[in-house]
Amino acid sequence: MSQPQHDVSLASVYQARRRIAGQAVRTPLVRSHALSERFDAEILLKLETQQPTGAFKLRGAANMIAALIERHGRDALEAGVVTASTGNHGRAVAFAASRLGIAATICLSRLVPANKVAAIEALGAEVRRVGESQDEAFGEVERLVSERGMTLIPPFDDPLIAAGQGTIGLELMEDAPDLDRVIVGLSGGGLLGGIGAAVKAIRPETRITGVSLTHGAAMWESLQAERPVAVEEVASLADSLGGGIGLDNRCTLSLVREVMDDHYQVSEVAIAHAMVDILEHEKLLVEGAAAVGLAALAEHGIQVRGQRVALILSGNGVALETLDRARAMCRR
Ligand SMILES: *Cc1c(COP(=O)(O)O)cnc(C)c1O
């Protein structure tokens, strides 16, 4: 077999599972009675909301930091790890680094609210407030990498990150070996790419369905253009799906193209209904990005009758004001 371009093999996903054991949780896959009735299918929910940081991103971050320690020794990470995410990835890096005894620096613009800053500091990371935008915060990350020798832990575009997220795929195949379809929120592609690499290696006929936003979906545009393109970022209930894929993307664009079978875009109103449905019927609080699988089923009438389908409930990082906004959209 030829070497895949993206370097996310089933073996690398098993390696990731060994490395993250004890840090990330093996999450439950539970049957939704309400959704199974509604879609005349067996709808299974993968509860990444139960990760200690509230989202799956801990899998990738823990795998990458542990792999770097394994390969290069603890001394190589003496200057610490660094990233600039304000959301689930920043929390994951702070958490994993502190567990592994590595210093972490998270660069945040001055626009990031105090409660988010405090949450990251509480995990033992050093927070640097720089600039007025995410771009300026990234500039500081680059400076710390080149001048201080810190190690960047990217949010998605690395084979170790994707392999970590791919451990979800292993768990799905163990808990539902005859799964027909997985529906996954798609932004940078570490989550879908990793799950797809694992699932396709074990059961190629299982369909991998990606769900993107209608506006500002960089991966959607990049797949159309067959090269990474930048898009304007638009506010969304699913804020964790915002952001670009990197104009120098080297891993996830080709990986997603290889493993994804079909791809849908969902509207804000469909996301709002899905968030509220999951809260009301499953009694689970999920963020918008975690509700897009249900939004796609409802909005596009994807044909799933009689199938076993897994939805990845990817995270629970939602502010109550955002939930209020979603509820208001459902009442209109
Ligand atoms: C990051 C994130 C995603 C998307 O993952 P990618 O690897 O960027 O495609 C989906 N849901 C949540 C909750 C996230 O934090």
TrEMBL record:
GO biological process per UniProt: isoleucine biosynthetic process; L-serine catabolic process; L-threonine catabolic process
Top-rank taxon, per record: Bacteria
Molecular-function annotations in GO: L-serine ammonia-lyase activity; pyridoxal phosphate binding; threonine deaminase activity
Listed Pfam families: PALP (PF00291)
Entry keyword Lyase: yes
SUPFAM superfamilies, per database record: Tryptophan synthase beta subunit-like PLP-dependent enzymes (SSF53686)
Keyword flag GTP-binding: no
InterPro entries: Ser/Thr_Dehydratase (IPR050147), Ser/Thr_deHydtase_PyrdxlP-BS (IPR000634), TrpB-like_PALP (IPR001926), TrpB-like_PALP_sf (IPR036052)
This protein's UniProt keywords: Lyase, Pyridoxal phosphate
Entries under Gene3D superfamilies matching the protein: 3.40.50.1100
Domain Tryptophan synthase beta chain-like PALP, chain residue ranges per copy: 25-315
UniProt cofactor(s): pyridoxal 5'-phosphate
PANTHER family per UniProt: L-THREONINE DEHYDRATASE CATABOLIC TDCB, THREONINE DEHYDRATASE, MITOCHONDRIAL-RELATED
Family listed: Belongs to the serine/threonine dehydratase family.
Identification of the protein by name: Hydroxyectoine utilization dehydratase EutB
Taxonomic path: Bacteria, Pseudomonadati, Pseudomonadota, Gammaproteobacteria, Oceanospirillales
